[in-house]
Specification:
five-stranded mixed sheet, 60s Ribosomal Protein L30, Chain: A, 2 domains, Phosphoribosyl-aminoimidazole Synthetase, Chain A, domain 2, homodimer, alpha+beta, seven-stranded mixed sheet
């Protein structure tokens, strides 16, 4: 371990976390695969079982368009979805500060209940702990999830190839902007993008190679993750990356990097060139901003092409935005 | 919800938690069963998938014989084991306070690593979040787990019957005593009983009706849980319940109830009368204190027979011992 003390950067989804996790030395994986991805998978019968976990520490717990419960449901469901798994069930573990208002807890749980019923993804097991007043900032929620990847999906080719297109399912930075507007007290009409990606994934299954959701570390983190396991690069075109004017304004005002901001209801798909238009058309049914933002190119790493030339888009490091999810 | 604010009692594993959970109204379960038990189960092929979650907030995080990591591994593994499931994989989600010593994190993770390798139960997926200094008391760990109940076990009769014996796998109260000795600064040689119950369950599978681990709420909570779903009662014999003299001394000194104390490596089995001796013999290989502590009787509820007569053992309520796990 490089540092003597844990820093906020360890929790931001960037390089520090990767290094921390590697340094843990927990390497026994049995028969499981994909342990470095959104969900780990295990062969079960003719398909694969998918298993994922996420703790949510978002601050503030209520923000425009959502709350910590909404986020906790969507985050874990989406980690299953992007692995092409059908979510089977979600666990819900609450750690609550003594004195937390029961009415707030009800609001949070009704967000989860509503999503669970709408998407027919049950909350099947849970746990509740309470910490003494002052020992925890309000509430932490852990959701874990299990899903199933069918035999057909398992056979799907995930290897990306030169010329493949990179497609984004909607505008960047809306979750972060909604959250930061509450934290830094500025006015905006932007609401969180938090949503389950079940229907989106259903619509593009079979025509994409792979999907990922740009949560902590944003687009920058996941694009670098995709190319890190191959000998090719990705180039995105700055002008093609969708982001609402109010998001761009907030990003500029706060001096943060749009490409590093967490989304909670967006996905990036890699699709063969000839299928890219079909993928965009399928995704536009859910969000008119879905579009091609770049392609797979020779070389390595991720770059952004702008009017002034091309620049490297590295894996984020440092604090980024703490407690965004 | 009865109270306006969440209290410590909501996190103690007693009545308040049950009421809180019921009031949540999250009732959509899809095809899942056993959602009120240690692990929820779902039919998958010819067997059943088992899924469980637990967050650990134990204070202090290091105590005689164990630490929060040890507890987090054992707690979730045992929730799978007592459902007669073979644990397939465990998730590990850390929420850490900024400034937490990296050396302490390494100690905690090495406990988990050691158990994972010894028991061949892999840690397959994880998450790390960091909260600002002062926003969290040190560290919280969530472990969730997936397991598989084989076709044969599924067929096992779980219905308890009059005359069945109640068997405890070892002395009560050791985890709580070890923990409280650190919290209240008294000397004891007692160490936590925290351990995976994989081998114990393997040894009694096929000859027991059901098993449960007396964690939060202790023996009192689980015995009441067992009888709550039937029209029969359980009577335990006070003099037959094993507890080390130092545990009894600590319990008396602190004015707490032995039957409500959490164990983290004990199980209670219900077995048909004719198989009870075989169950005890199998469990004695792991702990010489394993013995029959009572039986299934006519009536309802749980009672304790003492030299002075019989008294009711109710489901615990109130604070019990906060942050015991």
């Amino acid at each position: 371990m490089k540092k003597e003390f844990i820093t906020l950067a360890h929790g931001s989804g960037g390089k520090e976390m990767e290094e921390l996790i590697e340094s843990l030395g927990i390497s026994y994986r049995g028969e499981w695969k994909d342990c470095d991805k959104d969900s780990a998978t295990l062969r079960l019968g003719e398909g694969r079982l998918c298993f994922t976990t996420d703790s949510f520490v978002v601050d503030p717990i209520f923000f425009p368009g959502g709350d910590i419960g909404h986020l906790a449901f969507c985050g874990t469901v989406n980690d299953l979805c992007v692995m092409k798994a059908k979510p089977l069930g979600i666990s819900l573990a609450l750690v609550i500060e003594e004195g937390f208002p029961a009415a707030d807890l009800e609001k949070i749980l009704s967000s989860i209940k509503r999503l669970s019923e709408e998407y027919k993804i049950p909350i099947v097991t849970g746990d509740t702990k309470v910490m003494e007043k002052g020992k925890l900032d309000k509430i932490i929620i852990n959701t874990s999830g299990v899903g199933l990847i069918s035999k057909e999906e398992k056979a799907c080719d995930e290897k990306i190839a030169l010329g493949d297109k990179v497609i984004l399912s909607g505008g960047l930075g809306e979750h972060a902007t909604a959250l930061l507007s509450k934290r830094f007290d500025f006015e905006t009409r932007i609401t969180t993008d938090s949503k389950p990606l079940v229907k989106e994934m259903e619509a593009v299954k079979g025509i994409i190679r792979l999907a990922k959701d740009p949560t902590r570390g944003g687009l920058a983190a996941i694009l670098n993750e995709i190319v890190s396991k191959s000998s090719i690069g990705i180039e995105i075109v700055e002008d093609d990356v969708p982001a609402k004017p109010e998001v761009k304004k907030a990003v500029e005002m706060l001096g943060i990097n749009l490409y590093e901001l967490a989304c909670e209801g967006r996905m990036v798909c890699i699709a063969p060139e000839e299928k890219a238009d079909a993928v965009v058309a399928a995704l536009k049914k859910f969000n008119p901003d879905a579009c091609i933002i770049g392609k797979v190119v020779e070389g390595d790493g991720v770059s952004v092409r702008t009017a002034l030339g091309s620049r490297i888009l590295p894996t984020p490091s440092g604090r980024i935005v703490p407690r965004i999810c």
